[in-house]
Design a protein that fits this description.
This protein is an alpha+beta fold. The protein contains 2 helices and 7 strands. Strands 1, 2, 3, 4, 5, 6 and 7 form a 7-stranded antiparallel β-sheet that branches.
């Protein structure tokens, strides 16, 4: 889907019941769900379908551009800011 549709979907469902996505670890095959709460369109064109991290948030690839996620909730965890999650985790091996 395009970034505008996904961004509007996240905004429309936040905070309850919340939009969510499944991410799969490419090395282990493990799949985890993440609820998405705060997003922003970036205007950055997608060159490869890979999740990227920046100082401002986590960039998820859409069909046309990246969408920036700053607040989410991993499956079985509490809602958190992306910096809290990145303090002990990475998105290197995770894909959509």
């Amino acid at each position: 889907m395009d970034a505008k549709s996904i961004h509007d979907f996240i905004r429309g469902l936040s905070p309850y019941p919340a939009a969510w996505t499944n991410l799969t670890n490419e090395t282990s095959g493990e799949t985890r769900s993440f609820k998405l709460f705060i997003s922003r369109k970036t205007g950055i064109k997608v060159t490869e379908r890979k999740i990227l991290t920046t100082k401002e948030g986590i960039l998820f690839p859409c069909s046309d551009e990246y969408i920036l996620i700053t607040e989410f909730q991993p499956e079985g965890k509490r809602r958190m800011h992306f910096k809290e999650f990145l303090a002990g985790n990475t998105f290197e091996d995770w894909g959509i």
